[in-house]
């Protein structure tokens, strides 16, 4: 017997990814949202908490065609900025402090990003979203989408 024995079943046996990440702080989930100029959600997705924000940006931008993309420093990567400029989208992303070649950012336009943060604040007012009681990714995503619809209607 030279194989390893594990009491944890394989991921394929447990099912698909449920967007629950594990870190030193415990279990966590990230909600990614793209909002329009009025702060209304256009695209929403969830990922495990330890995943990088930039990993979902390309897939979320596939179905929409904005004039500008306002995001925080977590989205400052040359590959994303190049794709945005190829599509004719103005990237409004402040450069990371450790970037060797600092880019210019339109901070007057960047101030409008608070609409996205205000959307997340409204979303977290729903207890089921703030605490994530749902185990399944599909159920939690449906709850986030339902809360987003309520926010849109108010």
TrEMBL record:
Database matches in InterPro entries: Transposase_11 (IPR002559)
All residue ranges annotated as the Transposase IS4-like domain in the record: 21-143
Signal sequence interval, chain numbering: none
Coiled-coil regions listed in the entry: none
Keywords, comma-separated and alphabetical: Plasmid
Pfam families reported in the protein's UniProt record: DDE_Tnp_1
Keyword field contains DNA damage: no
GO biological process terms held by the UniProt record: DNA transposition
Any one GO MF annotation of this record: transposase activity
Stored NCBIfam families: transpos_IS5_3
UniProt-listed PANTHER family: BLR1914 PROTEIN, PHP DOMAIN PROTEIN
Identification of the protein by name: IS5 family transposase
């Amino acid at each position: 017997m030279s194989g390893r024995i594990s009491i944890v079943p394989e991921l394929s046996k447990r099912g698909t990814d449920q967007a629950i990440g594990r870190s030193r702080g415990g279990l966590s989930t990230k909600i990614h949202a793209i909002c329009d100029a009025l702060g209304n959600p256009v695209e929403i997705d969830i990922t495990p908490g330890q995943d990088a924000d930039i990993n979902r940006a390309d897939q979320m931008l596939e179905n929409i065609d904005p004039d500008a993309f306002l995001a925080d420093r977590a989205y400052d990567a040359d590959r994303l900025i190049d794709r945005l400029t190829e599509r004719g989208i103005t990237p409004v992303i402040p450069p990371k402090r450790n970037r060797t070649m600092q880019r210019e950012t339109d901070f007057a336009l960047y101030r409008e990003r608070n609409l996205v943060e205000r959307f997340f604040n409204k979303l977290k007012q729903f207890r089921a979203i703030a605490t994530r009681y749902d185990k399944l990714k599909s159920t939690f995503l449906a709850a986030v989408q339902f809360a987003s619809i309520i926010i849109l209607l108010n």
